[in-house]
């Protein structure tokens, strides 16, 4: 099958090159690549077999707090992120756009490569669909204050060691891995 327009081509390229840190992440990487090879629309929200999305663990400049958003539809605190849009040339650009839109913070520094992958089911356009989440880390400028746009979900800083009870294991794993990556340098 032929590859679709960006960010599909970028997603396929990034995931083919990405070095998974463990066997579970490697299985997800292989599944994501297989999905993209089979589905030229695999990064678009209209893909009826699920789609690639982006997640972002936004850390403060000290790496001690993480910015989470209260997702009204899920009823819990989650990392920032969302759907790839046709105008996003790369997954990283999609991650940067989504994090900026949901936080209202300009100047986020998004890592060049994904940190981890996650797969979860979520309601999308009235349907329950698999979301193949390519997750990045980002650092906010010192003193950044979240200001989501009108109608946006609440966004708030949490100490990385004291996430809200409603944060699921996928969000907790992303935050743990993001803190470890920042600590490693």
Whole-number tally of structural domains: 1
Sheet of most strands:
8 strands, mixed
Please tell me the overall pLDDT.
91
The CATH architecture is: Alpha-Beta Complex
Identify the CATH class: Alpha Beta
CATH topology: Nucleoside Triphosphate Pyrophosphohydrolase
Give the H and E element order: HHEEEEHEEEEH
Please work out how many helical segments DSSP would assign.
Answer: 4
Which stretches are low in confidence, meaning pLDDT under 50 for 5 or more residues running?
A: none
Q: Structural class per helix/strand content?
A: alpha+beta
CA radius of gyration: 15 Å
Superfamily (CATH H level) name: Nucleoside Triphosphate Pyrophosphohydrolase
The residue fraction in helices comes out at 25-40%
Instruction: Please report the distance between the alpha carbons of the first and last residues.
Output: 39 Å
Strand content: 25-35%
Large-scale geometry: globular
Family: Belongs to the Nudix hydrolase family.
Organism: Actinomadura meyerae
Pfam families: NUDIX
Protein name: 8-oxo-dGTP pyrophosphatase MutT, NUDIX family
